[in-house]
Design brief:
Blueprint (H helix, E strand, L loop, with lengths): L1 H16 L7 H8 L6 E9 L2 E8 L3 E2 L1 E11 L8 E12 L4 E2 L8 E3 L4 E8 L7 E11 L2 E9 L1 E2 L8 E5 L5 E8 L7 E11 L9 E3 L4 E7 L14 E5 L5 E6 L5 E9 L5 E3 L19 E5 L1
Parallel strand pairs: 3-11
Antiparallel strand pairs: 1-2, 2-4, 4-8, 5-6, 5-9, 7-8, 9-10, 12-13, 13-14, 14-15, 14-18, 16-17, 16-19, 17-18, 19-20, 19-21
């Protein structure tokens, strides 16, 4: 009973502290959280007598997780063709000419009901003076293989609910965690979806990432601002891997504002690879301590 009263007191204090005069969260949401709801053509090319169209949400490639759809038709007739398979490789070239890639699905999955090939790419940087991006597409029609390269622009991800982080684990492996959903959270229990990827150590490692299997992402969401007192919320659920390879859990946002998703990442054997427990004390006026593995969001 004492714990319940303490939690309710913390929530009430935070609710009174979180005023629109202090931070216009609703204004920030409206201006910084685009609605990613429709797939549109982001880039296209005519090659080998075929029209290759690549679609993304809002017709835009963003830093972080992007669902990708590839459609291939006859250039002359715009009729769909019988494509045996599509490969997809994003490549970034830095200012010195060095090349690299990012987490992605190389062999795209065909969706017969909608006639497109589906995949994803986790772009690790925006296009700019420090580097450019291109997509290498390969496909087979009538036992003949075709290839095409499409330059693209990767934009900054202004929706902080889709942030990502890259880090080295205690196993000395390089990892990336990218948030996939929710794009526009609600003051409620939200399904939290993320991808976890490991850079392969085999040659050529810079082009190869693996979706890690059997890991657990322990979750402790907090409002770290001093006025929020480091309070958390009940009914959160750690993220575990599902059949589609992504990790799913539940995050309960009790109010709008700045939240930190504190994580502890465990491998399939239960070994902690990254992350630390955060203090549970209610600390009004003091900024909350974050895990060594975290992602900040705003809604």
């Amino acid at each position: 009973m004492k714990k319940l009263l303490f939690f309710l007191s913390a929530v009430c204090f935070a609710a009174l502290s979180c005023t629109k005069e202090k931070t216009d969260y609703e204004g920030a949401i409206d201006s910084e959280t685009p609605g990613h709801i429709a797939f549109k053509e982001a880039t296209a090319i005519h090659s080998g007598g075929y029209y290759i169209s690549i679609e993304a949400l809002n017709g835009t490639f963003y830093k972080g997780y992007n669902e990708i759809r590839v459609k291939i038709t006859n250039s002359s007739t715009s009729v769909k063709v019988d494509v045996a398979g599509v490969t997809f490789l994003p490549i970034t070239t830095d200012a010195d000419g060095g090349t690299n890639s990012c987490p992605h699905r190389y062999d795209l999955a065909y969706k017969p009901d909608s006639n497109y090939f589906s995949g994803y790419s986790v772009f690790t940087s925006e296009s700019g003076a420090d580097g450019t991006w291109a997509l290498d597409i390969g496909f087979t029609v009538a036992n003949q293989t075709y290839t095409a390269t499409l330059p693209i622009v990767v934009q900054e991800q202004t929706n902080q609910n889709l942030n990502m982080t890259a880090f080295t684990g205690k196993d000395d492996e390089r990892y990336i965690i990218a948030l996939v959903s929710p794009q526009r959270p609600k003051v409620a229990e939200n399904e939290l979806i993320a991808g976890i990827y490991r850079l392969n150590t085999l040659t050529p490692s810079r082009f190869s990432y693996t979706e890690v299997s059997g890991y657990t992402l322990m979750l402790d969401p907090r409002m770290p601002e001093p006025s929020m007192g480091n309070h958390s919320s009940p009914n959160n659920v750690d993220l575990t891997q599902q059949d589609d390879g992504l990790y799913r859990g539940v995050v309960n946002y009790t109010m709008t504002g700045n939240w930190t998703l504190n994580f502890i990442m465990l491998n399939e054997d239960g070994r902690i690879l990254k992350g630390t427990e955060v203090p549970t004390d209610f600390t009004p006026g003091v900024e909350g301590v974050k895990s060594e593995l975290y992602i900040d969001i705003l809604f």
